[in-house]
Design goal:
The protein contains nine helices and eight strands. With 216 residues, the protein is an alpha/beta fold. Strands 4, 5, 6, 7 and 8 form a five-stranded parallel beta sheet that branches. The protein has a three-stranded parallel beta sheet with strand order 1-2-3. The radius of gyration is 17 Å and the shape is globular. It starts with 7 loop residues before the first helix and ends in a 7-residue tail after the last helix.
Length: 216
């Protein structure tokens, strides 16, 4: 029977190397580890427990079942849902379990408000997703007023962060273009008088190849 053997010692060493590089560049940086696709085949619960024990800041997932699997196993690290959720029953489960949501449209925000009212909850933690060229989902970078509106008009959203996603991180020229678009948006939010929350867009390839890190 085929099996994958993962050395926790090597995994921990790799994590410490990443942390050292990250925090040397910016002591206030946050480490978000994506554990989607069942922990990339390792087992999402086992991997998340290991990461929780080794003090990462956020665990990111792509589907509701992944988020709930982490929450149901008493893992304390914050869980961020990277995908939009428009099914009301799924959204209700995520909010009940204090999963941090991603918002990328006003429709999603209206749906969140509906579920909050149903549950009698006042606020939910969210990150704002900006589409800077991937064309998957998120608020378009060409419409900064709509993004600022999210910060200004929806007091039931506790906005903890804002991010974008590179479509081709190995293409340095295109990635820099997306990065500059993202920075332009975050600067406009700050100029409007709002705190952006943590700003993130550096996945593994970007971190290792370009070391794109934000300064506070």
């Amino acid at each position: 029977m085929k099996k994958v053997v993962v050395s926790k010692d090597i995994l921990k060493n790799n994590l410490e190397v990443i942390k050292e590089k990250l925090y040397n560049e910016n002591k206030d940086a946050k480490l978000i580890v994506v554990v989607k696709d069942n922990g990339v085949g390792i087992d999402i619960v086992q991997l998340s427990k290991f990461l929780d024990e080794n003090s990462v800041d956020i665990l990111a997932v792509a589907v509701t079942d992944e988020a709930l699997a982490i929450k149901e196993n008493d893992i304390k690290t914050e869980v961020l849902m990277l995908s939009p959720v428009v099914e009301e029953d799924e959204l209700e489960d995520l909010i009940k379990n204090d999963v941090t949501l991603t918002v990328g449209s006003l429709y999603e925000i209206d749906l969140i408000k509906k579920i909050l009212d149903k549950l009698g909850k006042e606020k939910v933690n969210v990150h704002v997703k900006v589409d800077t060229g991937f064309a998957r989902f998120g608020f378009l970078y060409t419409n900064p007023d709509e993004i600022i509106k999210v910060y200004k008009d929806y007091d039931f959203l506790n906005i903890k962060g804002i991010y974008t996603h590179y479509s081709s991180a190995t293409d340095e020229k295109w990635t820099n273009k997306q990065f500059n678009r993202f920075c332009d948006i975050t600067n406009k939010i700050k100029e409007a008088g709002f705190e952006t929350g943590i700003r993130h867009c550096a996945a593994t390839t970007t971190f290792l190849k370009l070391v794109v890190l934000f300064k506070a």
